[in-house]
Description:
With 195 residues, the chain is an all-alpha fold. It has helices at residues 2-18, 22-32, 38-54, 56-85, 90-93, 112-127, 132-148, 154-194.
Amino acid sequence: MEFLFAIDRSLFFFCNRMLENVLFDVAMPFITDLNKKPAALVIVGILWLLLLWRGGNGGRIAALLLIPTIAFSDQLNSSFLKHLVDRPRPCHVLADVHLLVTCGSGYSFPSSHAVNNFAGALVLSYFLPRWTWAFFAYAGLVAFSRIYVGVHYPSDVVAGAIVGLICASLVILLFRIAEHWWYARARSRRDHHEA
C-alpha cells in the first residue's frame, strides 16, 4: 500500500509543482472554484433552462436527470464515502504543497468535484452524444485543477470520476427501466381499450 501511496504522492507533486506556471496559477483556481462564483451559477442556470426549452427530447431528459444524479452522487460521496475512507487532503499532510486555494476541512478521497462533474458529464453525453468530448473535457479539467491547486491527490480524482460514472449509470439505468415500464403500461391500456 505504501508503494501505491508513493506513486500517488509523486504524481501529485508532478502536477502541483513540476507543472507550475503563471497561466495555470491564474486559471486553475478560477476553474476549481467556478461553482462558487455567482456569475457562473447564473450561466449554468441559463444553460439548464435552454436545455429544457431548446434541447429537444434528449436535452430535456438530460436537464431533468441532472438534478437527481448530482444530488445522489454528491450525497453518497460527501456523506458516506469520504467518511468511510477518512483520508486527509495533501495540503494538510505534505510539506511544500503549492496551495492556491483554501485547503478546506473535509476529507480528500474521493474528490466531490470529480464525482459530480463526471456524473453530470455522463448524463449529458448519454442524451446529447454530439457534445460528449466537451462534457468530459470540462470534467477532466476540473479534476486536474483539484490536483494542481493542491487539495487532492490524483487517486482522489480518479476514484471520484469512477464513482461519478457509476452513480450516473445507475440513474440512467433506473430512468430506462421506468421509461420501459411506462410505455409498456401505456401500450397495455391502449390495447385493453381497443379490445
